[in-house]
Every structure is written in structure tokens, then in C-alpha cells.
Amino acid sequence: MILGKEQIEDSNQENLSRHKKNHEFISDQINNAEEVIKKLIDFQVAIPSWALGTGGTRFGRFPGGGEPRSLEEKIEDIGLLHALNGSSGAISLHIPWDIPEDSDVIKNLAAQHGLRFDAMNSNTFQDQPDQKLSYKFGSMQHVDKAVRKQAVDHNIEVIKYGKELGSKSLTVWLSDGSTFPGQLNFRKAFLNTLESLREVYAALPPDWKMFVEYKAYEPNFYSTTVGDWGQSLLYTSKLGPQAYTLVDLGHHLPNANIEQIVALLLMEGKLAGFHFNDSKYGDDDLTVGSIKPYQLFLIFNELVEGMDARNMNHANDLAWMIDASHNVKDPLEDLLQSVEAIMIAYAQSLILERKKLVEAQNNNDVVTAQEILQKAFRTDVRAIVAEARLRAGGALNPLSVFRNEKVRENLIKERGSKTTATGL
Amino acid sequence: MILGKEQIEDSNQENLSRHKKNHEFISDQINNAEEVIKKLIDFQVAIPSWALGTGGTRFGRFPGGGEPRSLEEKIEDIGLLHALNGSSGAISLHIPWDIPEDSDVIKNLAAQHGLRFDAMNSNTFQDQPDQKLSYKFGSMQHVDKAVRKQAVDHNIEVIKYGKELGSKSLTVWLSDGSTFPGQLNFRKAFLNTLESLREVYAALPPDWKMFVEYKAYEPNFYSTTVGDWGQSLLYTSKLGPQAYTLVDLGHHLPNANIEQIVALLLMEGKLAGFHFNDSKYGDDDLTVGSIKPYQLFLIFNELVEGMDARNMNHANDLAWMIDASHNVKDPLEDLLQSVEAIMIAYAQSLILERKKLVEAQNNNDVVTAQEILQKAFRTDVRAIVAEARLRAGGALNPLSVFRNEKVRENLIKERGSKTTATGL
Amino acid sequence: MILGKEQIEDSNQENLSRHKKNHEFISDQINNAEEVIKKLIDFQVAIPSWALGTGGTRFGRFPGGGEPRSLEEKIEDIGLLHALNGSSGAISLHIPWDIPEDSDVIKNLAAQHGLRFDAMNSNTFQDQPDQKLSYKFGSMQHVDKAVRKQAVDHNIEVIKYGKELGSKSLTVWLSDGSTFPGQLNFRKAFLNTLESLREVYAALPPDWKMFVEYKAYEPNFYSTTVGDWGQSLLYTSKLGPQAYTLVDLGHHLPNANIEQIVALLLMEGKLAGFHFNDSKYGDDDLTVGSIKPYQLFLIFNELVEGMDARNMNHANDLAWMIDASHNVKDPLEDLLQSVEAIMIAYAQSLILERKKLVEAQNNNDVVTAQEILQKAFRTDVRAIVAEARLRAGGALNPLSVFRNEKVRENLIKERGSKTTATGL
Amino acid sequence: MILGKEQIEDSNQENLSRHKKNHEFISDQINNAEEVIKKLIDFQVAIPSWALGTGGTRFGRFPGGGEPRSLEEKIEDIGLLHALNGSSGAISLHIPWDIPEDSDVIKNLAAQHGLRFDAMNSNTFQDQPDQKLSYKFGSMQHVDKAVRKQAVDHNIEVIKYGKELGSKSLTVWLSDGSTFPGQLNFRKAFLNTLESLREVYAALPPDWKMFVEYKAYEPNFYSTTVGDWGQSLLYTSKLGPQAYTLVDLGHHLPNANIEQIVALLLMEGKLAGFHFNDSKYGDDDLTVGSIKPYQLFLIFNELVEGMDARNMNHANDLAWMIDASHNVKDPLEDLLQSVEAIMIAYAQSLILERKKLVEAQNNNDVVTAQEILQKAFRTDVRAIVAEARLRAGGALNPLSVFRNEKVRENLIKERGSKTTATGL
């Protein structure tokens, strides 16, 4: 299914006068509305191919219908999102789930939807049907060199697919770790992993980046071999200038100050980018901004400050991706909500009165510093985000269009009600 | 496969002289060795039918081989455990996974292995292939009365199977809850759940108990409708004298003082019993005693104190069960380790100098109170536990026998290497 | 120091035209602006007498200056807050820190500032210089009946002072608990505490309420004898209809779903009210809304829903109080920020489209339910809150007036720069 | 008060025959009893000068009596501990609380008790009466260069005192951080702190080490500028080879895997040593081993493995110190319990069958790996620790001697019942 321009435009027409009033009001309240809108238009959030279907837990999965059955249909789904919000112009593939049969065909299809290929993702946390050696006890950390080699080779193969599609980065998330005390030697596990990562790093094209993601726990419940930002930074520092640390918001211990981690990684020039989601307990993989929207804003506040301090380009110099699981919502609706939450937080961090904040900080005026942050956060920037969408050709209200045009119903008609997309 | 008495006895002979020495030493150190051994022999831990196969996470599952393919084979597995340790003389079934075709046959089979049927477990957290209505948005809490009725009827059916087998209790674990703020009305969800539980309660035979288990989170990641002991106690108090609160060690928020909860539930006469396991992060479902053995001891300390204060029978008046998931270990070996850890903690709590502890508490002598607890915990009671096993006809070293007799290899031969047991 | 009406009015004049524009815009966006404003005007947040000075941690305290040296000066401080925001019209006293020499004088003074006396607070977590028996090992839980009696008598004395001043409730926060395993018998500690609370309850005037506050940990680091809402509810249920459970936002284990607790306590008719603050790690006692503003909104969402369902009066039927510690901010500025955050969250919960939410819940439309909550939260209601302040005679921008009028400088001049208020 | 050799020997005589039997039994169970005893005798745990008095929380302090009033009396107290357990042969001073009037006198006094001077501790988390600039908003991170300089100068002064006394290391624990979002710029705070640390580092004698301690939170409740091991490692890596990372067991987020951190710091050659204590919730500063003794054992397991892998000397190459707060126990009794818990965990890690563990790890035999760890932990090594104490001239049962000889009563007689030692 493809959403026609007219359908979106018709919907926009209905909401336009109200929107104009709101947009005018907010533009009057802040100084840099036009600048913010331009940055919002440039800002694209990659959608992972595995988040287009219903997610599950170890206790079960309750699938919806019309889920994409192939890479082509995944691209079609993201095309729908991008048509609606103008901010989902990239796709992140997962190998082996998304091996393209013909890369040129896939590239053309993506281009038709205005999508580029973001980071490629390898998978050494599951055993595939035809796989020689098992990852039950880890992959890059494994005590058996042959298993490590298999994991390295797989990553090199992923790079190959990525090159064909025009991707420029590889995300390595390892579930390697241990479930019981004594199961592994932490030092040897680290050194094995480092050795394996080095072999992959050596195969990296010169214009590629390697992202090393960390996670505190799950699916291993005692230790993880890339367990926190400190460990990831150790690896990426030893690997070299093409290696960076990837932050997933749900991969921390309770109460971690993620925004500080972001600021320090930026300071070190080692921040890769983000896997956005939200959570209350662990790696709950909920809709971005659905639980702790203020934390999301604080993270963007550090991103804008830190990237500006290094003259980085907001849109291009870090990798922005959603990594969520949709257990009880329609995956596409969930992704629309997630992108919206990201754009709102980004917009709020862009309207923050940064010079005044520096002044307050220099005076240890904690009260004023808080006022400045809260002023930006309490400002209703939805009309600015909508204006950016409008100018980018998207919908003023993507969710309404999605429902009014019966997108899901159409997908079910096309694909059936019993489809199950690959993914978690 | 059935382990012959001789195999166990042969193994015991080899270890006997060493064991005797150890047993003598420890018997000399404590006053009540014989009494402790008797209590240990009486103490039986139920094995859940779903913990006999390899467990998994949402990220994958790495099955071993020789897993039971039927209820009969599950009984056989628990029979093996019970033959080895003499402390696993009960089985806890899960419906619909374990619906018996012929209850009498199953009862006889269990009796041959010396097993009785512990609490029956219902399942309204998954959709079964032939199920009319979905539990995607809850079961007993559901906004739709028809879904609630389906869940109630299922529980009543579970009671029916339990009656046929001689079980005397029903465990209700509900995953009901919500994944996002606003998804449900907490009060209405509670009242719907209470109404549903009441209908099940009304169907309870007069000599049955109903266990209402609580859990803080997972698979719902925002709220759970029976979320903590306080909520469970609210339900069970409103339901009536046959309703009790079940504690699973992994179902709490970080740092919860579980032993205090146990003491208070005992005080209220509302403790049902336990699902034993261990965890570092969440409901990790690890081997009992593998992460926080001292906490396990402290819990048993409260159990012994509180049960004695109410003149309860340790072995019969509460329900003792393991509920763990075996992702990287052989399930049967894991269960042997879990039962051992439980028996050790129970033994340590039995040798604790309780009168001295009361005296120290009455004097606010915190140092001495700690000394008394640590003395019991630091005492090596393994020989006492082994002696109890020996007298019950079990093995001095169950794990060694399991490995030396190549139990798993035999099971694989009998059942194949690609079996997958039902369960999580 | 007293802020003159003119000073506030002058400041309001300067900001009025801007405010009018903002107020008009928001009034146009929501249906019930006038109704919301009325409710906001009625809503009063009590200020605790001990939160007017600089707080500290066990590591130290960095006092500011001009802190109140007497009960009279504390009333003066709250009078300043109330003059500025029109929403701080109540004071909560702490005995023995605030024993009035002449109750009538104090009552008159409070009345001059438009203040009433909210809940009285007892203190059995510290030893006073002239105290006979120590609370080192608890107060109402103590193994020694004489200590328990001392604690009971103190609470009865607090009621006496409260009656003289016109208060109608007693808040009992007990730090009772234990710091090490074995230190106390949980059951006996509970029963002793219940017995003590019953004696205080018996001394309660018929039109009074007793609030039993719970706390997970600190200053005891192993167990707390009123440790969570479940325990508090057990006490208050056993005590009788005048006993209620008090919620302090910082008194929970990590990740607790406080809004669900609030809903259930309201359902049971046992919610006393709140101690508002915010926190990232433990009982950090930070400015309300400074860390998790969305959680605050979700709590108010439950309050409004649950109180309306029971036809309760928002302003009068629960006790609203701030309980924070101001370590790095001016205490009065901090309190202004806290009250503002409360009013914003309350306003957002009042504009929420509740009928639509019920409909979405009944349809299990999780996406729409989230949209409705987020719409309310993302709406900029500051102009509505300001309008309520304006109509109540307060300042459009309380913080600006506080700074422009050099309130703190004046207080330092009057009271000196080395004063230290009683409190934590 | 000084404990005479005879008093200890008399007590030992009474317990000797029982001890001999126990020692014989355990020596028979393990292969390396003599080697373990030698290592235990060499192992000395430093006692911090500030842990000799009653600790407190922000809610209050309940002092005992007989607390040391001077540096001399602190040395006397540690002398008592060392006489009793033979394992407390070092003292760690805190400046400005412990500024020696005459270093030679103090050195001689310590030598008489067999004590050496461990790491010196600076204090920039409190304001001293005569201090020019305040640390309210941090010290080494401060936006004002003059404050940073004051903090640097203080640390350099601490080094000076340490040199006079024969100490060889400086521990820098900074409470620097922020309490509210926006209060500080994380990057600038880091860089200021690094600059300050560099200035102190430059003043370090060539044979000294600098320990940079990290802490997740408290007394700052939003961010800490040396907040986790990753941050500390960043600092110490940038500082140079004399800088190391210090681990305090209570300074982590919930559920952190501290033993893995230890292993990685050892791998990097950057582990300074330990501040031992225990905790259930936060930095509770409880008696070592009182809450999570298995975690303590797992940490020692990594220490022994990692130090042996680098051919390090257990006793000398890392700094071992207790850092606890004694709120409800006699401080000296508490310290005796803490040292005992450390020695037990160390002994258990020394008897662990390490070759078998490596073999199990190489076979991914998780069950056996757990068996090996638990075997060591479940072994009752108290008689070995006691034997080490006996040979070192200490008491078989230090606590009994302490009580029987009425040490505290004597100290109260000498020093009075109203003394309060400096400290937290």
C-alpha cells in the first residue's frame, strides 16, 4: 500500500487553519522558530526492520495482522511512515533476517520511498537453522576459537551486504556474557571479544564506522561482556578511530544518569548514536517518550550542547534509530508516536535559552538553570514539529491519516491477518 | 529411564566413609542434628512440569536434548530427581500443557515414582491455538466480560483436572496489567480481577486452597494488576479463608526485603508458600541460591520462626515449589542444585540458636544477633543434608550419580536430541 | 518582611499584556478553562515548617542566610510564599521543633497571613536533649514497653498542640526498623507498633484523622516497620476509619508504580494525602517535578479520576503537602518551584479528555489512550496556572518578584546570615 | 586502654581444644591449609580513623560512649582491634580531622601498636570553619578557579602530612556533582576536575599512588562528577601510571556486577583497592558481609584470580580498607565483625579449586563451575581464620575477649560517656 500525496494533503487542509493559529502563537513565543523548523526537517530517524511486526516476551506474543512478510514489504511499511511524518527516511537492516536477494532492486525500491540504509545489524545472539556452531555460550567471547571465527565471519558478511546497499556502519550488539557466577572468566571473555572485534574492525571499509552497543543484562542474567558504557568505551578506544559506542536507552542499571554518559562520550569523540525507546523496569522497549519524556529531553539537551561544542551536524554526525518492541500496539502507530516524541524533545532542546543557561551555571544559580530547562520543556512545541512535517510533505496529524485511510486494514487485506514479521 | 537402587547405593558406598566423618563432625557441633535430619527428610519440594526443558528468553532459546515430550516423561524426569535426592516428591502441573488423557494412569505412574500432585497452575497469559477470545489485553481484568468468563472457566477446568489427580490447590498467576500509562483504569482492573477470582473461588472444593501470586512487572511493563504482596493480600483477604498469597522470589522490585514480607504474611495467616529461584536483575529465574544464598537463608529463618510461632507443620502447611528457567544448564542438573540449596538454607535455619536470638533481640544486642545468624549460615551443613538424603534412600552426591550414570545421554537416546518440552 | 500588595501588582502590570495573550490562547484550546482556574484557586499546598531552612545530608550542610529562627518567622516565610502564589495557604508543624508558646498568638499570626494549620507531625526518630529513653532502637516498635509509652505520650502531646491551633490531623512517620538481619523480630515489631498506634488512635479527637506514612528505607537500612503501602494499609485497616495511609513520593523502592498505589488506596477509601517531592535515587527530597514531571502528572491523573469517582472534594478531602530538602537552592525559591510544578500537573490532569480516555480504555485502544494523556501533558498550561494566581491576588511570576524585591537579602538583614532553621 | 597479651592468651586457652579439633577437620578437607593461613596472616585491613565513633544519618545520630577524642585515642582504638585480630595493622587518616600536631610522636605511637599509615584522605565535601571559599557547588569541578585551587592546595597539604607519617597514597573522594538537571555542564565539570586532579598528581611523590574513588550518588542526587568506574578509569588513564581507581562496595547503582568491574580494572592494571562495607539499598555503609556475603566472596574470587594472573602480592599490591558507618552497633565490635567477614571471604577464595574451575569454564560446564564456587563458599573456614589469628598473636574469639574484658566500659571510664568522634 502506498499513501497518495492527495490523501495527506486533504487531511492537512482540514487541520490547516487551526494549525496556522498554533504555529503563529508558538513562533511568536520563541526567537528561533524558523531555524528550529529547518533542523527538524533535516533530522531523520532510522526505523529498524525488525520493529515492524508485533513484539513478544518470553511469555508469549499476541500478533496483529498485515505484518510485512519480506524485506520489500518492510521497506513499504517504512515508506508509509516516512510519507506520513517526513522524518523516517532511513532503514536499519538485520542480517540474516533481511538478506537482500538482489541489492540493486532493494536499493531502487528504498530510493522510491526516499529511504537510505542506516547501520547494518549482525546477529550472533541466536542460532540459525543451518548454523554450524552454537552461540549458547557466547559468540565473540567464546572459549572456542572456531565459534569466535564464525561470529567474526558473520559480521564481515553483514558488512558485505551493507556495502552493496550503501550503508556506512555496522552495529555490533553482543548478548555475550554469563548467567551464573563462575561461568566465565571476565578478563578472558573481554580479551576474546576484543580480539574478535579487531578482526571485524580490520574488515571495515575506510569510510565505515563500527558501533559497539552495551547492555547491562538480558538475555544473560549475571554478567554481560559489553555491559556498560565504560566497557564499550574500553573496546572502542582500543579498536581505533572508526569504532564508537552506541547508547540504547533501555540498556542501563536502574536510575543511571544517561544524559551524563552521553555528554562524556561526546566529549571523548566516541558517541555513535542512539537506539531510542523507553522503559520503566528494564529493557522494556516501550514507545519513545511514553514513560520518562523529561529524561528524553535532558538527553537531547546534552546532545545539542555537546554536538554544537564540537561543530557537529545534528542530522548526519550521529546515528539516530528507534529500537522498540510493540507488544500491545499496532507497530506502525507505535513508531509514529515514537518519532513524534523524538522530534518534540529535539525541538524543546533547540528552543532552550542556552546562553542564559551557561550564565546561570557560571553563577551556580541552580534555580534559574532549572527554570530555563523547564521553560523549554513546558513549551508546547507540537505546532513547530507539525509545521516541519508539513513543509517536508508529511501529514499535520500522521496518526489520524493512518487511521482514516485504514492503512492497517489495507495491509491486512494485502498480506493476510496471520503474518508474522521476523524480529523479537 | 529409571535409576536403579543399586546404582545409587554403589555410588554411596564409595563416598560413605568420607561422609561419615563429615556427618560426625557436624553432628558434634550442633545440638539438634537428629531432629534436623528428620525435618529434612519430611521436607519435599515440588517440581514444576514446565521446568524440565530448556528455558528461553525473548532473544532465543538454545535447547539441549532428551527433554520430556509428554506428561508421562515429565513424571519420569521428576522420578529421577526424587530417586536421587529424596526431596522432590511432588509435581506441579500446568494446564493446558499437561492435560492428562487418563487421570488414573497418570496418578498410578506418579505413585510408582513416589510423587504426589502439588498445586495446579492455570494459564491465561497466552493464547492457545483453539482459544475463542484473546488475552492480549488481560484475562481476569479484561474490560470485556466474555474474556473474563473465559478465564474463569479455564481456571474451573483446571480445578477439575486437579481433583482427578488428587491436587489440593490452584495457583493463579495473572500477567494482567498494562504496558503504557492510560491503558487501563487501575481500579476497574482490580475490581474486575476480584470479581473473576471470586467466581473461581466459589468453584473451589472445600478442602482446596487458592494461591494468588503477585509479580511486579513482566510481561507487562507499566503496571501489573496483582503487582505486589499488598495487592495480593487485598485480594486474598476479600476472597476468604481459602485464599492465600504466593511468593515468588523473583517477582519484586529491586532491593525488596522479601523475608519481612514472608514474616508479615505468616503473621496474617495468609502465606501460601513459595516459588523458589534466584535473580540478580529481575525475574531472572536462576538456580535457587546461586546469587543470594544469604537472602534465602534469611527467608527460611523467618519461615521457621513464623511457622513455629503458629504451630505449623514445616513440611505440609505451606506449598514449596521451584520455579526456575534453565537457559544454559541441563534442566535436571539445575533442579538438583536448586533443591540442594533449599535444603541447605532450611538446615541452617533449623540449627540457628533461636532462644539466644530472642534474648539478643530483647537486649537490642545487634552484634550478637548478627553473630547468631552468621554462625548458622557459616556452618557447613552439607553433611547433614546428605545424611537426610541417605536415609531417604537417595544419593550422597546426586549430581555425580546423574553424570556417572549418563542420565542425560540415556534420555537423549530414548527421546531424541531435538525434543522441546512445553514451558517458557 | 511582608510583601506589599502593590509590589506584586506592579510586577503583574508589567507582565499582564503578555499573560493575557497566553491565557487567551490556552483558554481557546481547552473546553473547561474557567472550571480549571476555579479548582486551581481552591487548591492549597501545605508547607512544612522544617523545609524553610537549608537541608543537609550526613556529609554536611551548606547553610544560606536569613533562615527563620522561630515559629513566628516560619509563619512569616510561608506568608511570603502565599502572598506570591496564593497556593501555600497552610502550614504543617513539627513537634518538638515548633511548640507554640502561646497558641492564640500563633493562630492570629497565621490568620493574618491567610494560613491554616495542616497536619501535625510528631518526632520519634531523634533523641531530644531532655528525653528519658532513647529511640536508637525504635520507638513504637521498641522491645521495651516504656519506650513505646514515651513515644505514644509524645504523639498524644502533639495532638494537644494541634487541637489548640485548629489542626485536624496527625502524621505519624516512624523511622522504626532495623539495620541488620536478626536485629528484630518483624512480627513482634509490627504488633508492638500496632499496639502503640492504637493507643494514639484512641486519643484522637473524633473529627481528626491519623496519617500513617510508610517508607522503604533510611534511616534504617535493612528493614522498616512501616515499609510500604501494603504494611501501612494493614495498620490503618486494623486501626479504624480515622486512620489513613500517607504517600511520600520518595519513599519507594526503585521503579515502583506510585500512581497505581494511589488509585488502589483511593479505591479502599484509605488515602490520606501526599508528601510531594522528587527523586532520582532514593528519598532525595528534591524539588517537586524536577526529575520526573510525567510521573507527577500520572499521579494527579489518578487522583482526579479516583476522587471524582468517589465524589470527593479535590481541595479538602486529601492532605497536600510538600516534603523536600533544599541543599543547594534558596528554600523559598525551591518551594515556589515546587508549588508551581504541582499546580501545573494538577491543571494538566484537569484538562485531560476523560470521557475519551474511558472510551479508549474500553476499546483497548492503547495508542489513543497514550495520545490523550500526552496531549494533556504536552499542553502548556502555565498561563492557566498564572491566571489562577492572578485572581487569587498572587504574582504572575512569583520567582521574579521574589528576586526583584530582594526578599532573601531583606531576610538576611532582619535575621542575620548565620541563622539555621530547625529541620533536617 | 591496652589489652594485655595474657588476657588474650587466657581466653585462647579456654577455646583451644575445641579450636584444634575444628582446625584439624578443616585442614583435612582442603589441600592448602598452611598456605592459606600464611596468606591470611599477611593480609592487613586498614581501619579508617573516622569509623571509630558512632555514625549517623541526616535524621540523627545516637552516640554511644567512650569514643576517641583525639588522633592518639583513635590509634589506641585500632591498636585494640589489631591486638585482638592481628589483621587491622593499618590506619587511614582523614584531613583535616586528623592533623597530627607532632608527626614523630604519632608515628611512634602507631609503631607501638604495630600499625602503619595507609592511604591519606582529603576532604573537600564539607566546609571547615576557617575555610575561605565554600564547596557548596563542588570543589575540583567548581566553575570558579579559586575554589578549585583551594581544593588542590588542600590535597597537596594532605600529601605533606602523609609524607611525614610514612603513608604512600592519597585517596581522593569527591562529592562533586549536581543535584538538579541543568545545574552544571557535565563536560566542563569533568574537564575542571581533570585539571585539578592533574595539579595534585603533579605534587605526588614518585613512590606514591593516587586513588580516585567513584560514587554513583549522594550527597549529590542528580549527577556525580566521578560517578562510576568508567569515569574514574577515564580520569586515571589520563592522569598517568600513579593514578588508580578505588572501589567502594556501596558506591554503585542497584544490581551492579562489582566483581566484573574488579576483574576489568585489574586487567587494565588500574585497580587501587577497596573500601569494604555492605549495603542493601544505597551507600548504607553496613558491616562487611552482613547483607551479601556471597557477593563479597565473588569479589575476592576475582581478586585472587586477577592478582595471581599478574603476579601481584595479595597483601601489599592493593589497598584494603573498611569504610563503614556504625549507627546501631559499638564501632569496635562492628569493625571486628567486618574484618572477620573479609578474612572468611578471602580464605574461601583461596581454597577454591581454581584449576578445576578453569577446566569447567573451558568446557562451558556451568553446573560444575557453580559447584566449585559453592563448595568453597559453603566450606566452614572459620577455624582457618582463627588459626591465622592465633599464630599472629590475636584472639581465637576477638568479640568474646572484647566483651569479657569490658573494653567499651573501660573506654567510657577513661574518656567519658558523652564523647563524639569526628566522622560521618
From TrEMBL, chains A, B, C, D:
Disordered: annotated segments: 1-20
Domain of life: Bacteria
Keywords carried by this UniProt record: Isomerase, Manganese, Metal-binding
Any Pfam family hit: AP_endonuc_2
Domain Xylose isomerase-like TIM barrel: 98-285
Molecular function as annotated in GO: isomerase activity; metal ion binding
InterPro entries named in the record: L-rhamnose_isomerase, Xyl_isomerase-like_sf, Xyl_isomerase-like_TIM-brl
Name of this chain's protein: Sugar isomerase
